[in-house]
Amino acid sequence: MADACFAHPRLAAVYDPLDPDRGDLDAYLRMAREFGARRVLDIGCGTGVFALLLADEGIDVVGVDPAGASLDVARAKPGAGRVRWIEGDATDLPPLTADLATMTANVAQAIADPGTWHATLSGAHAALRPGGRLVFETRDPARRAWESWTREQSYVRADVPGVGAVESWHEVTAVDGPLVSFRTTYVFASDGEVLTSDSTLRFRGREEIEAELADHGYVLEGVRDAPDRPGREFVFVARRPSGADNSRRDVPEQA
């Protein structure tokens, strides 16, 4: 089930105005170009910001998300007809042969349940063509990012056209091993309504994720840094093996 910040219609409508700087997506767009991707699966596409950037490049995009309210926002944007939107997750996909599958921003960490996470890795693997890549990011647990998720450090205020002023902030509610839970509060000045959204993220270590990718049949190509958060995140680039991979393994090593 999607968090209220994505699934509640009033909150989904202000998601983009409260987080207008999506410079974090630049690195993903560059990788789509680097890999020559022509068909992309955007897992956890939310309000469609990245999917529409890809569509602007002439890329065939499928955006999947469990939050219907967020997809409603995405479908109302200019150019949305160029993207195939699916309400669901990576286990609800039609047959695909994507060159690239992505999970940007918090998507990978928001899949906190281990069973759902493994199903997502399997679903993405099945959706990729042989040689296709999965790219996603996750915060380095050692950097303890949640320590800055306080009202003082996370407070934002935006004047949203047609809505009015909206205030928002985060506060951590629990830290339980790799799970960090927090509550986001929203205050709408137009009518004084206060809404909250509770979220839980899983902080997985690099070795843990590398092992999980191998278990699901991926070849790890590399772990990159996140340009917008240098030294604080891992960006994993994994590939579904192709026949060429098998051929290389069958060639004896030279003495």
From TrEMBL:
Q: Keywords in UniProt for this one?
A: Methyltransferase, S-adenosyl-L-methionine, Transferase
Please provide, alphabetically and separated by semicolons, the GO molecular function terms listed in this UniProt record.
Answer: methyltransferase activity
Q: What is its EC number?
A: 2.1.1.-
Pfam families named in the record: Methyltransf_25
- The answer, when asked if Transferase is one of the entry's keywords, is yes
GO process annotations (BP) = methylation
Q: Does the keyword S-adenosyl-L-methionine apply?
A: yes
**Taxonomically, which superkingdom?**
Bacteria
Methyltransferase domain location, by residue?
40-132
Q: What is this protein called?
A: Class I SAM-dependent methyltransferase
Q: Which species is this record about?
A: Streptomyces werraensis
